[in-house]
Amino acid sequence: FAAANTVSNMFIVEVRPKEEWDARIGALQALGGLGQVSGLLLAGFIGGRYALEFGVAAGLVAAAVPIAWMTLRDIQVPVARTTATAHPALGGESWASAPQRLFHVLSWRGFVTLLHEMEMPFARLLGVWFIAFVAISAVLTMFPLSLIRAFGVSVRLPASTYAFAAAVSLFLYPLAASAAKKHGARRVLRAGFGARTVAIAILTAAFVSQAHNVPLVLTGFVITVMAWPLLGVSGTALAAELAPGEKGEALGLFNASSSLAGAIGAFLGGWATEAFSYGTVCLISTIVVTLSTLLSGSANSKRGTPTGALVNKEPPAAS
Questions:
Q1: Are 237 and 310 spatial neighbours (Cβ–Cβ below 8 Å)?
Q2: What is the distance between the alpha carbons of residues 38 and 62, in angstroms, rounded to a whole number?
Q3: 3 state SS of 106
Q4: Is residue 87 predicted with pLDDT exceeding 50?
Q5: Confidence check: pLDDT of 311 > 70
Q6: Could you tell me if residue 93 is inside a domain?
Q7: Residue 111 near residue 257 (C-beta atoms within 8 A)
Q8: Is residue 101 assigned to a domain?
Q9: What is the pLDDT averaged over residues 251-273?
């Protein structure tokens, strides 16, 4: 998933002009959310027939491959005449299909170069994002099981609530893209972290107090899910803008940090829930995400634009 997400975003930030990033990243995230909602509804319809579920999932993924091949292979990047004439022809390399003239290959050397050349705004974004998502992953991973254990609700309630929240969040992607274009991606990122701080604080209050207030718990969970469009759009756009070198490597590193944070958060969340309680996990996560909210607005863009803004030259851009 991380690889597919990186490549799909590269088709935006490497091909399209900067002023289109926010809208296109928002549309991409919205389509991903629509697929997620459809998958949840399909899983509920299939109803526990696991062999059929895996077969349908494999078939849908296989169907996506030819669609991508047919729609993406003819993408061309327009080059201004002045830019083209500034570089003379390179002789006979093109007919020999020299790979370095045809495409950009992701490599470990590129990642190492990116790390060596990494500038503080991008490094700070990665650090804040990683730490926040370790905490958020710990909360989200253990939420369904903790809700069922603590409140004795049906196993279908967490899934149906998630499907509802994800469906509503589809309408927030255009708003997130518009807000990032108007106010800057960093402000939207900070708002997303702020929303998740409030949501996890609500979960903390519900689980620590043991008041068995199911509507309060579901409210916190719904807000957590609905905050993703703010984070997904702004985080991806900001990573592309602050990239010190190749945007492909930068987005790959950004998505890799998300995946690693998710894995670490799931492990720590399970261990902490077993050793202490889910309420304790939520309490610690509230503190961590609060700090991330404060730190996410403290770095300046390296290009001298307003704090973290992906600014259009006309006017105005990561679940």
A1: yes
A2: 17
A3: coil
A4: no
A5: no
A6: no
A7: no
A8: no
A9: 90
pLDDT tens, residue by residue, 129-146: 999 999 999 999 999 999
Q: Tell me if 213 sits within 8 A of 159, measured CB to CB.
A: no
Residues 24 and 12 sit within 8 Å (Cβ to Cβ): yes
Q: For residue 280, give the amino acid letter.
A: T
Say what the pLDDT of residue 266 is. Answer: 92
Asked if 118 and 179 count as a contact pair (C-beta separation under 8 A), the reply is: no
**In angstroms, rounded to a whole number, what is the distance separating the alpha carbons of residues 70 and 153?**
46
Q: What is the CATH number of the domain that holds 179?
A: 1.20.1250.20
Instruction: List for the chain the helix, strand, coil content (%; round to 5).
Output: 75, 0, 25
Asked whether residue 218 is assigned to any structural domain, the reply reads yes
The residue that leads in pLDDT, 45 or 250, is 250
Number of domains the chain contains: 1
Burial of 193 (0-12, 13-18, 19+ CB in 10 A): buried
Quote the pTM value: 0.68
Which helix H or strand E contains 299, and what residues bound it?
Answer: none
User: Apex CA 231: angle with CA 157 and CA 42, to 5°?
Assistant: 35
Residue range of the domain that includes 141: 2-73+119-295
Instruction: Tell me whether residue 233 is in a domain.
Output: yes
